[in-house]
Amino acid sequence: MNEAMEALLERPDVARAREELERMDADTLALQRRIAAIPSPTGEERERAGFIAERMAALGLAGVATDGVGNVRGRLGAAAAGGPGIVVAAHLDTVFSSDADHTIRDSGARVLGPGIGDNSRGLAAMLTLAEVMHAADIRPGRPVTFIASVGEEGHGDLRGVKHLFEDPRFTPDAFIALDGAGIERIVHRALGSRRLRATFKGPGGHSWAAFGIPNPAHAVGVAAALIADLPLPSQPRAAVSVVRIGGGSGLNSIPQEAWLELDIRAEAEHAVEQLFGGATQALGRALDATNRRRAAGTPALTLHIEPLGHRPSGITDERHALVQAALAATRALGYTPALAAASTDANVAISRGVPGIALGAGGKGGDTHTMGEWFENVDGPAGIVRALLVLLATT
pTM (2 decimals)? Predict the structure, then answer.
């Protein structure tokens, strides 16, 4: 594979594309900044999606369209008889609200602003990749479908890509997600998750006069302690975290309800399901323990569990040609590849048996999901060259 990648780099059309990417570097960064300045919280991606759709159409991509949930797609090459060919995807949404300050500013060599890396970089790289393939007259052996997806972050629960796979005609040959900055990491293991909110409800009352009735806040505390003690498998890596707790109405009141939110993650679906079962049992034990301590004749607490998300897990074997192409491309460009696990749009493809990976789109970044998020355009074109090499090796 390494020799084949070296040969690919020497192809005249690829050499032209590489030169063009270097020439376009400042334009790509400007596009990235423009995208980041458009607020796009999960569920409110319409304005950014419209901008991406306009850019796709201007690049001459075929069949540019927005689907029922807001995903935008465009195609390079003839339509595949059985599906979209190779999919290159980048998600539209961010974790920041529309009223957050989306001013993009410079600080030395860094560009700062919410979402400047995750995932304005991925979107800009995807559009630049489509543009340079057209400019360099690169004709891949299979069609390439570029997709800007909705609902990748948080409560979005990979909604956009899940919607794509609901269509039986959507059968990609491979799925490549461009997500954030970076040039070395290759995500081939899909980190799965189950998320829920557990709410304990009771009659509530005065913290002195009604003491003895079952306390939902106590139940949350017991549940959190039991969940913290859940045994974790040594392999695959897994995590169970109580991430938010709330409830109550006053300092001198037993709450009528209290709740906790739980995030369960693992690199294998059986581990996710095992831990989900253990966590729900722990919630039931907390309910029983709190109710057993209540004063005689007082109403029992109830427990309500609300699912908040389910991200599927899986793996694209590192021996698969797609992963091997990503490893070889990274090395051919002079970097050291690192195989990794993460939760990305590629999760859905991998869980459906479609070879999938996620790649950084060049440069360096940090403080992701904070208002101080930054991007440094170090070797930015190399990330897009890597994506091009992987795409061509796959087609």
Answer: 0.93
Report how far apart, in Å, the C-alpha atoms of 82 and of each of 79, 167, 168 are: 9, 12, 10
CA neighbor of 346 nearest in space, from 390, 319, 311: 311
pLDDT digits (tens, 9 = 90+) for 321-368: 999 999 999 999 999 999 999 999 999 999 999 999 999 999 999 999
Q: Output phi, psi for 335, to 5 deg.
A: -115, 165
CATH number at residue 275: 3.30.70.360
**Buried/exposed 143-167: b ≥16 CB within 10 Å, e otherwise:** bbbbbbbbbbbbebbbbbbbbbbee
By CB atoms closer than 10 A (0-12, 13-18, 19+), residue 288 is middle
The beta-strand segments (E) located in 97-164 are 105-107, 110-112, 144-149
Residue with tokens 């690049």: 59
Q: Does 206 share its domain with 301?
A: yes
The structure tokens listed for 353 are 């048996």
Instruction: Give a three-class secondary structure readout of 148-216.
Output: EECCCCHHHCCHHHHHHHCCCCCCCCEEEEECCCCCCEEEEEECEEEEEEEEEECCCEECCCCECECCH
Which residues span the domain enclosing 361? 2-191+313-394
- Quickly count: other Cβ atoms within 10 Å of residue 172's Cβ: 25
Alpha carbon 323 to chain centroid, angstroms: 19
